[in-house]
From TrEMBL:
The lineage of its organism: Bacteria, Candidatus Shapironibacteriota. One of its GO terms (cellular component) is cytosol. The keyword Transferase applies. It comes from the Bacteria. SUPFAM superfamilies: alpha/beta knot. This is RNA methyltransferase. Keywords: Methyltransferase, Transferase. One of its GO terms (molecular function) is RNA binding. Signal peptide: none annotated. Coiled coil: none annotated.
C-alpha cells in the first residue's frame, strides 16, 4: 500500500498558473445544517475531486478553520471556494438570484423523490444535502426543483451524507 501525505496528494500549487487554469464544474454544494465536522471535511475533499465551484455551509455547522474539518479535508478548504449562510433557505435564494437556469436538487428520501439514476442532470446545478439525523429541512425541500434518492437494498435505510453526495456528484459529472 502506498501512503501519501497531504503534500504528495496535490500536484498543483495554490497560487500557480496551473491552479488558476483549472476548470471548475458549475456545481454548488449546499450543506443544510451538517453538524459532523468529519462529514464537512470529507465533503470539501469530494468537492475538490469533482471540481465543484463552491461549498455553502449553513446552520449550526462548524466552518474552516477547524482542526477536524482540516484533517478530514486534507486541507482542501484552502483550494475549494466556500462561504457560510445562516440558513440553507437563504443560500438557495441567493444561488437562484445569482445564477440563471440553475436547478436545485436535494438528496433526500421523500415521497416526491426519484432515483438519482432517473434524473436528467444538467449544469449549472446546486445539490443540497441535509443534517445527519433530520435530513434536508422541509422548508428547503419545498424550494428544490427536484428530490433524488439512492435505492437501498440491504437492512439499513440510508447512507452517510458524504457517501450519498459522492455517488450523486459523480453521476452528475458523468452525465454533464
Amino acid at each position: 500500500m502506498i501512503k501519501l501525505n497531504a503534500q504528495q496528494l496535490r500536484t498543483t500549487k495554490k497560487d500557480s498558473e496551473e491552479f488558476k487554469r483549472l476548470r471548475k464544474n458549475p456545481i454548488y454544494i449546499v450543506l443544510d445544517n451538517i453538524l459532523d465536522t468529519y462529514n464537512i471535511g470529507s465533503i470539501f475533499r469530494l468537492a475538490d475531486a469533482v471540481a465543484a465551484e463552491e461549498v455553502i455551509i449553513t446552520g449550526q455547522a462548524e466552518v474552516p478553520p477547524n482542526t477536524r474539518i482540516k484533517k478530514a479535508s486534507i486541507n482542501t478548504t484552502e483550494w475549494v471556494k466556500w462561504h457560510y449562510e445562516s440558513t440553507a433557505k437563504e443560500a438557495i435564494i441567493k444561488i437562484k438570484n445569482q445564477i440563471s437556469n440553475i436547478k436545485v436538487i436535494a438528496i433526500e428520501q421523500d415521497k416526491k423523490s426519484v432515483s438519482y439514476t432517473e434524473m436528467k442532470w444538467e449544469f449549472p446545478v446546486a445539490v443540497v444535502v441535509g443534517n445527519e439525523t433530520y435530513g434536508v429541512s422541509r422548508e428547503v425541500l419545498k424550494m428544490c426543483d427536484a428530490i433524488v434518492e439512492l435505492p437501498m437494498f440491504g437492512v439499513n435505510i440510508s447512507l452517510n451524507v458524504m457517501v450519498s453526495l459522492g455517488i450523486v456528484l459523480y453521476k452528475i459529472v458523468e452525465k454533464c
